[in-house]
């Protein structure tokens, strides 16, 4: 039976090791996956820049998520090079033939005066709160820090804004702006779940702010109790928003938000609903079409029934608003394939999703090659049906 | 024969149906057939003899504006989706506060 020392010696004989100087060359030239196998408190006190953190106990279960390509080089390190030696052996057994262990570990790395990154760090309560995010390789600690630093503006705190704001808040989006001039009405409560019966008559932005802050104190809510107009949109956008979630219920606001987003280069996550059906897409300036490419002009008002007239199944904005939150989080994190150039259609009655492609219109008056609309227009008039027929 | 998917905002104009069969080798013929039987659709779908700017027609998931517009060919068995802009809707010039549907 082998002692620990004997086992370590045996393992070290079977794996490849590099010293700190060589490790730095490998990092600079070969773009390896750098894996820190130490414990959380050790990682928090500093680590090699670019490293990912997989504590030794989770190595087998998480390495495939972090390094699916078995042929990629993996540089493992711990504090002194012993745990990482065992880790390298484990990875060898899993088929990672290019794994190496940093002999002397992080201690030797620091002794050489090589760069160290301090964890901007989630504290323990935040690690607990966001633990299910931290487990996802695409989010992780860096992603969570990104979310905590991101700013998302919601147009409307109604049917779509309710689930969107709740999920964005729960996810830890650091700052959420909400634009809505309305107060909570009894007829809202069938679907607007960010509000409640005791908030009847209260401003929707204040009601939403209270709900969100009770859900997650990490979130700062910026309420704008006003109707979004050509006059105030520049002031509101000057507060600096990474993503706009459009849950407006009328065409003038849709076109206003679109034009502003194109001029500011801010992506818009668009959602709309009617009865049992909803639509979601992402308008990302420069990367895909805008709302005017999709619908060059609004329908005459008499042809555009609203949810107030036609009704809506209460859960429908729950589905569509949640999809908007999902897209907004992807944009904030910079992951996945957002719905750019794709319009997702959901039909609750048949429980079907369909997708149609939407393309950028080179003739678009706002985002096209030769824009003819370069400043805010009178959007109410534009949508009033008095425009000249095309 | 092509099955045309009718969006919820237009269903009242076709007696509530979610899908309506129509005949035609192009989008124009298809729409003419539909509007001949359901005249209330005309204002909702066409303007000056072309597809209205507030409605999109998709054949096999592609916007016909990116193909040959109203003259785009429709093969038998294709899926056609009519999709008018759907935003809720302002009340005749009076802009209501934004409030997510």
Structure explained in plain terms:
The complex is a heterodimer of chains A (390) and B (101). By secondary structure, chain A is α/β, with parallel strands linked by helices. Chain A has helices spanning 4-14, 20-30, 40-44, 59-66, 83-93, 105-111, 124-129, 131-134, 140-148, 161-170, 204-215, 233-237, 251-264, 291-294, 307-310, 316-333, 379-382; strands at residues 16-18, 33-36, 52-53, 74-77, 99-102, 151-155, 175-179, 220-224, 243-246, 268-274, 277-283, 342-347, 352-357. Chain A has 2 domains: 4-119, Oxidized Rhodanese, domain 1 (3-Layer(aba) Sandwich), CATH 3.40.250.10; 150-382, NAD(P)-binding Rossmann-like Domain (Rossmann fold, 3-Layer(aba) Sandwich). Chain A is built from 17 helices and 13 strands. Chain A has an 8-stranded mixed β-sheet, sandwiched between helices. A 5-stranded parallel β-sheet of chain A has the order 1-5-4-2-3. Chain B has one domain: Ubiquitin-like (UB roll) (Roll). Chain B contains 2 helices and 7 strands; from the N terminus they run E-E-H-H-E-E-E-E-E. Chain B is globular. The N and C termini of chain B lie far apart (36 Å). Residues 89-101 of chain B have low confidence and may be disordered. Classes of the chains: A alpha/beta (390), B alpha+beta (101). At the A-B interface, helix 13, strand 10, helix 15, strand 13 and helix 17 of A face strand 5, strand 6 and strand 7 of B.
């Amino acid at each position: 039976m082998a002692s620990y020392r004997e086992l370590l010696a045996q393992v070290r004989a079977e794996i490849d090791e590099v010293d700190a100087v060589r490790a730095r060359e490998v990092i600079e030239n070969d773009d390896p996956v750098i894996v820190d196998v130490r414990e959380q408190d050790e990682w928090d006190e500093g680590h090699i820049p670019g490293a990912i953190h997989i504590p030794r106990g989770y190595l087998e279960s998480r390495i495939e998520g972090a390094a699916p390509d078995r042929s990629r080089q993996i540089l493992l390190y711990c504090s002194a090079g012993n745990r990482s030696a065992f880790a390298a052996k484990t990875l060898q057994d899993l088929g990672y033939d290019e794994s190496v262990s940093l002999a002397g570990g992080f201690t030797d790395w620091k002794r050489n005066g090589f760069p160290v990154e301090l964890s901007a760090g989630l504290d323990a309560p935040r690690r607990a709160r966001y633990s299910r995010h931290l487990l996802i390789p695409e989010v992780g600690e860096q992603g969570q820090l990104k979310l905590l630093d991101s700013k998302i503006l919601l147009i409307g705190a109604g049917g779509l804004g309710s689930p969107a704001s709740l999920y964005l808040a729960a996810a830890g989006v650091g700052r959420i702006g909400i634009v809505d001039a309305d107060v909570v009405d009894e007829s809202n409560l069938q679907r607007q779940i960010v509000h409640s019966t005791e908030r009847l008559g209260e401003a929707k932005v204040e009601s939403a702010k209270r709900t969100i802050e009770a859900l997650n104190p990490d979130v700062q809510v910026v309420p704008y109790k006003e109707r979004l107009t050509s006059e105030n949109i520049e002031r509101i956008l000057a507060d600096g928003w990474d993503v706009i979630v459009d849950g407006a219920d009328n065409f003038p606001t849709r076109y206003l938000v679109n034009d502003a987003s194109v001029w500011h280069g801010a992506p818009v996550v668009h959602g709309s609903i009617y009865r049992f059906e909803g639509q979601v897409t992402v308008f990302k300036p420069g990367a895909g079409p805008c709302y005017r490419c999709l619908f060059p002009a609004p329908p005459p008002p008499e042809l555009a029934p609203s949810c107030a007239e036609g009704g809506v199944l209460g859960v429908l904005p729950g589905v569509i608003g949640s999809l908007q939150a999902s897209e907004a989080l992807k944009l904030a994190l910079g992951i996945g394939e957002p719905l750019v150039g794709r319009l997702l259609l959901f039909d609750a009655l048949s429980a079907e999703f369909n997708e149609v492609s939407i393309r950028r219109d080179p003739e678009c008056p706002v985002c096209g090659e030769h824009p003819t609309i370069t400043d805010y227009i009178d959007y109410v008039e534009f949508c009033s049906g008095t425009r000249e027929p095309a | 024969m092509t099955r045309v998917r009718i969006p919820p905002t237009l269903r009242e104009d076709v007696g509530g149906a979610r899908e309506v069969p129509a005949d035609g080798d192009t989008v124009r013929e298809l729409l003419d057939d539909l509007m001949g039987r359901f005249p209330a659709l005309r204002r909702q779908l066409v303007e000056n003899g072309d597809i209205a700017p507030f409605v999109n027609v998709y054949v096999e998931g592609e916007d016909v504006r990116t193909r040959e517009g109203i003259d785009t060919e429709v093969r038998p068995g294709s899926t056609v989706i009519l999709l008018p802009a759907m935003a809720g809707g302002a009340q005749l010039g009076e802009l209501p506060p934004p409030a997510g549907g």
